[in-house]
Amino acid sequence: MMLFTKRFTYPFHKEQTGLSLVSTLWILTILSILATQLLYSIHIEQRTQRNFLDRAKYHYAAKAGFEWTLAVMQTDQTPFDSSGESWAEPIAGQVEDGVQLGNFLNYQVTVTDEASKVNINTADAGLISNLLAQVGASPDDAQTEELANTIVDGQPYRTVRDLARVAGMTSELLYGTQQMAAFTQGTTNTQGTSTSIAPDPSTALQSTSADAQPGLVDLATIYSLDASTDPDGEALVNVNTADAEQLTQIETQPSQGGGQPVFSQAEAESLIQQREFDGFSALIDVQAVSDELFNNIRNQITTEDSGGNQENQESEETNNPQQQGGDGQININTADVETLESLNGIDQGIAQRIVDHRDSQGLFQNIDAIKDVTMLTQQEFIGIVDKITLKDGETRNGLININTAPAEILALLPGMDHQKAQAIVTRREQDPPDDAPVLSFTEEEIKGNPFTNISQLSELEEIDFETFGEVVDWVTYRSHGYRIEANGVDGTGRVVSTCIGIIDRTGDQVIVQYWRQD
């Protein structure tokens, strides 16, 4: 009897095999994803490290450019500072890559004279109002004047951006329309920081239009300063605190008939009795005979002859001069220099000014008119502005450099307009004459014909004496505060790292007052 065994097949064996294949595929997929993610993470990490390394390298390249420029600025010995000097040109250089042999890192540096801007810590309400109008505020709006007064009340400021806290300040006025447009687009374009090489600040204003209005951060500063020395490097004389001996040693500039003292002993003493001057222009009207001196001599002088007559005195004084009036008084309308010197407190200097005034303006109508005699001629005033100051201290803050400031900034100053400002720019950019003093100061080639002292402003036809008297308190011909921006730049011209510093070079050592690195 044959036995038959029936074979049974179970479907679940086939299903198990299929599940194993699917599981394997899923595992491979997951492992592939993990491997890809790991490779991507490694790639990102390597790229991050490479970017960090590049940023570190270009940071030190930028810093090398900053230090190189610092050395250049420290060796600049010209007694003036102008945009025609080598430091004002953009500087480009290379440093060797310390990581990759044979590779070099590029840097580019621009230097901006802080004295080419308006100092918001020293400007008065009038200048601030003009500055606000320059950045878009309505010049005739009462709110502009109110904002200017508020800004002055808040002085001093630590940074220009502190103006954002001033009531009435707007983002457009502070940052300008160009930067505000960049903010709106999500970029980070701040003052002195950009994704490309910054343009020359001296031409920034000239390139602006209605679509690119500059802001206060572009035109204002708190770092402008100058040394309190004359063009020869000697300390300025403070006419508000100097004694008579120091005042008698003041001489005018050589180009203004220098070499002789301006003030006599009696003139110096008379000036001391009248001082507490708050501006150079006050010196124009200072009396040769002070009120105190006049009170001492008023009983000794007269405008009448011995007969008590003043009529026809002008026609008679040449033929028969009578230098004394009644009671032995001296007739100031006829007395010569030697006779006037006999008065108590009057020396040859004051006596000569009395005679010169009488010759040019006519006879004195009364003895009080002697107080109309001024101590300085226009030529003498122009000649001493480079020799004097009104404040103590080794530095003077807030002066605007006529050799670097653009015409738009110069036009904001008291007494100035665009035509006068442009005349200054034209003068400093023209070729110097063969006998120009600027050619004797340095062997370095200097472009243009920069001003070497303030008195040279009076030589411009557009700058009359009245304008000179108004603007002289606000300007200088040199600067000791500079903004250095150094950029580390890759091969494509992209800025990788930036170093910005504000330096003060008034002393023997250059001091970095402000530092920022990006």
Explain this structure.
With about 525 residues, this protein is of the alpha/beta class. The protein has a domain at about 115-225 and about 395-515. Helices cover about 35% and strands about 10% of the residues. The protein has 15 helices and 15 strands. The protein has a five-stranded antiparallel β-sheet. It has a two-stranded parallel ribbon with strand order 3-4. The chain has a two-stranded antiparallel ribbon with strand order 5-10. Helix 2 (about 125-135) crosses helix 3. The radius of gyration is 37 Å and the shape is elongated. It starts with 10 loop residues before the first helix and ends with a strand. About 35% of the residues are buried. Mean pLDDT is about 85; it is low at about 185-210 and about 310-320.
Features:
alpha/beta; two-stranded parallel sheet; 15 strands; elongated
Q: Could you outline the blueprint of secondary structure elements for this entry?
A:
Blueprint (H helix, E strand, L loop, with lengths): L10 H65 L15 E6 L7 E10 L4 E2 L5 H10 L7 H12 L17 H14 L31 H4 E2 L3 E3 L9 E2 L5 H5 L16 H10 L16 H7 L3 E2 L10 H4 L13 E2 L5 H4 L7 H14 L16 H7 L3 E2 L5 E3 L2 E2 L5 H4 L7 H12 L35 H7 L3 E2 L4 E9 L5 E10 L6 E7 L1
Parallel strand pairs: 3-4, 6-9, 7-8, 11-12
Antiparallel strand pairs: 1-2, 2-13, 5-10, 13-14, 14-15
